[in-house]
Specification:
11 helices, 292 residues, alpha/beta, Alpha-Beta Plaits, single chain, 36% helix, Rossmann fold, elongated, four-stranded antiparallel beta sheet, 29% strand, 2 domains
């Protein structure tokens, strides 16, 4: 079942900024990572999903509800963390929490207290005196306090210290285990690898890749570290094999797109000490789409 749908979404700000004919789905119970640098269109997409922006063409739906015409329903149901935090500066943290509880029609509950304690948040401080990290914690509390089934996160850990980042990732991992649907934009590859089933890569407002995390990594150039018995062999091999570079006297890094038969045939003529296959990373897959 497709819980989140983006269909041919276009919003053109000019000068190549915006999103252009963007389409993807997030299935029920899936965690979907949305990757791209600043300005690629991640936040614009999420703002359309929240109903803050009206599509110039195309449409977005969540649970079958139109994200623009039914935005008042969607905003109450979802757990949302904004990339650019704009809160009511004159309110205290507790005042904002009560405001959001009233907006959603829920009473103060155990879940709210648990979130406050988990993220070591002081709700008595006025928002205008809060650091970015404290504001981020407040957004996390209000995103999780009503135990929603669907989450939209836009760079959710950008203001958090390493300890709080780990707590957030652990919390989201537990929500994932509970079958929640999660769409998360991030530029932190480790976060996405720990949380997401599937990944979309956006470049200049266009989706350039959508695939399961393991499949996306499998499609990239495979890298190997070849350890030779002597530095002369390392230098000779590096000059013969095109996609290679010497990284130490005895070690050469090689990149292979698909078939490693040519590599094996070439290595057969050299004295080897070892052949290492480092773990492929999401970051390396991402760089292939942004490397030029």
């Amino acid at each position: 079942m497709k819980t989140i749908r983006v269909e041919n979404l276009t919003r053109d700000y000019g000068h190549g900024k915006g999103v252009f004919d963007l389409s993807f789905d997030v299935h029920k119970g899936e965690s979907f990572g949305f990757l791209g640098p600043n300005g690629a269109g991640k936040t614009t997409t999420i703002r359309h999903l929240m109903g803050f922006l009206k599509a110039k063409s195309g449409r977005c739906t969540i649970d079958g509800l139109d994200c623009w015409t039914d935005s008042h329903i969607i905003q109450k149901r979802l757990g949302y963390i904004a990339g650019e935090i704009n809160l009511f500066n004159d309110m205290t943290g507790s005042g904002f929490i009560k405001f959001m509880q009233a907006y959603r029609g829920i009473a103060s509950n155990k879940r709210t207290v648990e979130m406050i304690e988990l993220f070591d948040f002081n709700p008595d401080i006025r928002i205008k005196k809060m650091s970015k990290g404290m504001k981020q914690k407040l957004e996390i509390v209000t995103a999780f306090m009503h135990d929603p089934d669907i989450f939209l996160f836009d760079e959710p850990t950008s203001g958090l210290d390493p300890l709080m980042k780990n707590r957030f990732i652990d919390l989201v991992t537990e929500e994932k285990r509970r079958g929640k649907t999660i769409l998360m934009s991030s530029h932190l590859f480790e976060e996405v690898e720990r949380i997401c089933h599937r990944v979309g890569i956006i470049r200049e407002g266009k989706l350039v890749a959508v695939d399961a995390l393991d499949e996306l990594k499998a499609k990239q150039m495979k890298k190997y570290i070849v350890v030779f018995e002597n530095k002369e062999s390392a230098a000779d091999f590096a000059s013969e094999f095109i996609q290679s570079k010497v990284i130490s006297d005895h070690q050469v890094e090689v990149a292979v797109q698909d078939n490693i038969n040519d590599l094996i045939a070439t290595l057969h003529r050299y004295p080897l000490a070892n052949l290492l296959a480092p773990k492929q990373s999401l970051e390396e897959a991402f760089i292939q789409y942004y490397g030029d």
